[in-house]
Amino acid sequence: MTVHIEKVDLPGIGVRHDLVTESGRRLAVVRYRDGDRELGLYDADDPDNCRESLHISDEEAEALADLFSASLAVSRLTKLTEETDGLYTEKITLPPDSPFVDRTLGDTKTRTRTHVSIVAIIRDRHVIPSPTPGEILREGDVIVTVGTRAGLDAAARLFSNGPE
Q1: Which of 34, 81, 131, 138 is the most buried (most CB within 10 A)?
Q2: 36/83 same-domain check
Q3: What is the pTM of this model?
Q4: Whole-angstrom Cα distance, residue 9 to residue 126?
């Protein structure tokens, strides 16, 4: 399915972007000239009738964007691994007693030691895509990995216990 988004200029007010869902419902994001934003859900039978609207703060908009991007990234990786035999995606939570807490991702040498790729880190609902070796790991980080089953098991042991 192609995603259909309509842009509606609201003179003197701002801009509204409507996402038309597969079921024909409209979800709108109104961006006011002063920077405020609102979400709107439109009546299925009357696309001009906004059934409910909700003011969204900057922090809430950022949190929603993070939630959607995190779930999309993991969904896309999962779909890729489902299409490829022997390749898996796994989320590994960095335990509080890991020797890598407050150290750089590069210190783990994960790719060299386990042949696993780290594609993202999820921290406090915020996604860090394609983290660099200089990224500091924090307790509770969720490390999104891709590799073979044996490699992912080795990566989980590495993050828990350090190098063997």
Answers
A1: 131
A2: no
A3: 0.55
A4: 31
